[in-house]
Amino acid sequence: MKWPHCAPAGWPGRLVADVRRRRILMRRHTGLMAMAALVVASAPVIATTWAPDKVQDPVNKDRIDVQQPASSGSYIYQWPGKSDQVFWPFTDGAWLWFNPGSGYIAFGNDFKEIDPPRLEALRVWLKANYDRANAPRTRLELLLWAERVYSARGMSNDFWCHFYRLMAFETRSDEAVSLAYIRKAIPLLADRLNSESEAGPTMEALYLLGEYNRRLGNAADADRYLAQLTSFEASGEMSGFKAYLLEIAWEQRNPPADNPPEQTREQ
Q: How far apart are CA 107 and CA 111, in angstroms?
């Protein structure tokens, strides 16, 4: 299993190293930790970079201008999307490539990856469903259109588990919509939990099932999954990942009075 879906390079090693560094800082000096937090808070403005590129739309063979990720760091694992385990570049509009000429849209990592039989079926679907006069423009419109295009392509459960979590995060200002996506993600996470043997995906599923049941008001299930994560035996690199997930779970359950949980905050 490719885990997590299309994660940035170095996962989870870069994350674990970041957790260790932050713990050392906390032990050494509270003031220094506060300074580090300030740097992380400002990182989204200055810390990731993009490079211009051109790619071919597989549907109509147009060459379109896109942006490719050029640089990032472990700080991306501390950005708000961590509450849904979705990360840059997926949380950035530049990674969603769209050709208004054909209507084709996809994330950069799978823009070209279409089997020939599915490609022809997609061309037929786009011709019947895409309206150039009313092409999607906003971030949410593009994501909703991508959801339809990906449905026409036929994607794996692994893909949809990630996509529904991304949508839960992107629509967090509208609780009803966000929770609807969470309800779609939960059975896919449960399937992963029942079929996965590796520590990383198992712990991520336990965290997300606990967090999503908490948001839905299912306190007993939320506590049960959190208890399973807490008692999960992890060693080496995975012990750092477990600590990271438990830290997020605590933050989501214990937000400051003037700082609500990440999924309800505006970006």
A: 6
Contacts of 80 (CB under 8 A, 6+ apart): 169, 262, 265, 267
Which conformational region is residue 3 in: left (phi greater than 0), alpha (psi within -120 to 50 degrees), or beta? beta
How distant, in Å, are the alpha carbons of 73, 198, 202, 204 from that of 3?
18, 10, 10, 10
Report if residue 5 sits inside a domain: no
1 falls within a domain: no
State the Cα–Cα distance between residues 208 and 245, nearest whole angstrom: 9
Cβ pair 84, 165 in contact under 8 A = yes
Q: What pLDDT sits at residue 44?
A: 42
* Structural domain count of the chain: 1
Q: Is 233 within 8 Å of 241 (Cβ atoms)?
A: no
What would the pLDDT profile of 63-90 be if each residue is shown by its tens digit?
A: 999 999 999 999 999 999 999 999 999 9
pLDDT digit string (tens) for 100-134?
A: 999 999 999 999 989 999 999 999 999 999 999 99
Q: Which of 195, 190, 170 is nearest to 180 (CA)?
A: 170
> Residue 88, Cβ neighbours under 10 Å: how many?
19
